[in-house]
Structure formats: structure tokens, C-alpha cells
Design a protein that fits this description.
alpha/beta; four-stranded mixed sheet; 6 helices; 9 strands; Peptidase_C13; GPI-anchor transamidase; GPI-anchor transamidase activity
């Protein structure tokens, strides 16, 4: 979900690109980016419907969250917010209670195994304070009463282009690969107050596992190993062989 088409905005001097800093080191709007909800499709109603699976029958699969009780889900939210709310389109807002209730619906409907929730906005930790569903690990760029600040301005377009927290998160993830042994504890410590100028909040009481033993690839870009073979394989015989190996 991206509410603004920044890559194709007339003010963007570099069409079809969005960079993480003024030196144009990382194009975060690369060839592999898929935007399923854009512009005025990005609304509180559509966001809640997407999470809970309450979408119209004719909704294409690309606009559905096709998950089940075995799925690990990453939710990343950023924008303007305050104590207990996040704005959508500067015309409506989702509250912390609405978000908490949506996640509970997901749990009741067996739509996830674990959720990693990230939010980058002012007073961001207020958005996870009302969570009450199990298996949720949450982090926020600022505590209640704190602002979440921008990193630097791009003089070519005259605006701040990235928040401090997101900047350091992206920097961390750029050095993590599918075979990475980095853990969620390392991720949660990616932006100390000296770098963020705000206090990063973490809530782990709903999460059953020890974050120090959870690889970041459980939520970020894990790639399953694939073996290519030209030999015929009897797929009906595989369950039998696995059962024999266990015995």
C-alpha cells in the first residue's frame, strides 16, 4: 500500500525512482516492487479489510492477504501520527484500538502464525500498546511524547526524503542476506537514541519466542533452497520415505 505515487510525481527529477538518501545509493523503488493498493485505494477500510480477509468476492488475489495459521507476517506502517492514531490520506485515521481488534480477528480466523509489527511515526509506540493477541512482536520508532524525526533533506527536490529510523533499518537490511544469521534482537537494536534522536520502543510480551534466537529471515526475505535434478522423482513415495527415515 502506497498512498502517494512519489516515483512518478512531477516534482521528482528522477522519474520512476525513489532513493534512500541524497547521494542516490539505494533505489527503493526497484524492478521487484509491487504496489497493489495505491492512491485513494489506501484507506483505513481497505487496510482493515485486507488484514481481516473481509474483502468483496470479486477482489483479485493480488489484493488479498492469502495467509493461514502457518504464515509469518510483516506489517510496516509509516506516516503522520500521534498518541493512539495513524493518519491515512490526511483525511482519516486508524486508531490503536481498531488495529488491535483487527489483529485479534486475524488470530481468531487463523490468518497468521506470528506477526512482526513495525511503525515509524511520532509517538509510534502508542499504536501497539493496546495489542492483546498472541505471537506479536512489535517495535516503534518513538515512545509516547516523542517525535520521530527525518534524516536529511534532498536539496534537488526540497524535502526530507526518509525518516531516521527507516534509514537505519534499511541500512541494516541491505547487509542481511537469505543465509544471514542475524537475529531479531540485533534488528531491534538497529537505531539507538544517538542515531534516531528518539527512543525506539519494543513490545515482546505477546511473543512466545526469544527474539535473540529468532533469525530475521523468519520475517524478511527468506529464500528456500532449491535443488535442480533431471532424475525422475516419485512424489507419492516421498511421504513413505520420510516416515521410514524417522523410524
Amino acid at each position: 500500500m502506497i498512498s502517494d505515487d512519489m516515483a512518478c510525481n512531477p516534482r521528482n527529477p528522477r522519474p520512476a525512482t525513489i532513493f534512500n538518501n541524497a547521494h542516490e545509493q539505494i533505489n527503493v523503488y526497484g524492478d521487484d516492487v509491487e504496489v497493489d493498493y495505491r492512491g485513494y485505494e489506501v484507506s483505513v477500510e481497505n487496510f482493515i479489510r485486507l488484514l481481516t480477509g473481509r474483502v468483496p468476492p470479486d477482489t483479485p488475489r493480488s489484493k488479498q492477504l492469502l495467509t493461514d495459521e502457518g504464515s509469518n507476517i510483516l506489517i510496516y506502517l509509516t506516516g503522520h501520527g500521534g498518541d493512539g492514531f495513524l493518519k491515512f490520506q490526511d483525511s482519516e485515521e486508524v486508531t490503536s484500538q481498531e488495529l488491535a481488534d483487527a489483529l485479534e480477528q486475524m488470530w481468531q480466523k487463523r490468518r497468521y502464525n506470528e506477526i512482526f509489527f513495525i511503525i515509524d511515526t511520532c509517538q509510534a509506540s502508542s499504536m501497539y500498546e493496546k495489542f492483546y493477541s498472541p505471537n506479536i512482536l512489535a517495535t516503534a520508532s518513538s515512545l509516547v511524547g516523542e517525535d520521530s524525526l527525518s534524516h536529511h533533506v534532498d536539496s534537488a527536490i526540497g524535502v526530507y526524503i526518509i525518516d531516521r529510523y527507516t534509514y537505519y533499518v534499511l541500512e541494516f537490511l541491505e547487509h542481511a542476506f537469505s543465509s544471514s544469521e542475524k537475529t531479531m534482537t540485533e534488528f531491534l537494536a538497529v537505531c539507538p537514541k544517538s542515531a534516531c534522536l528518539s527512543t525506539v520502543g519494543v513490545r515482546s510480551d505477546l511473543f512466545k519466542r526469544d527474539p535473540s534466537k529468532v533469525p530475521i529471515t523468519d520475517f524478511f526475505g527468506s529464500v528456500r533452497p532449491v535443488t535442480i535434478t533431471t532424475d525422475p522423482i516419485d512424489i507419492l513415495d516421498i511421504p513413505k520415505r520420510k516416515k521410514t527415515e524417522k523410524q
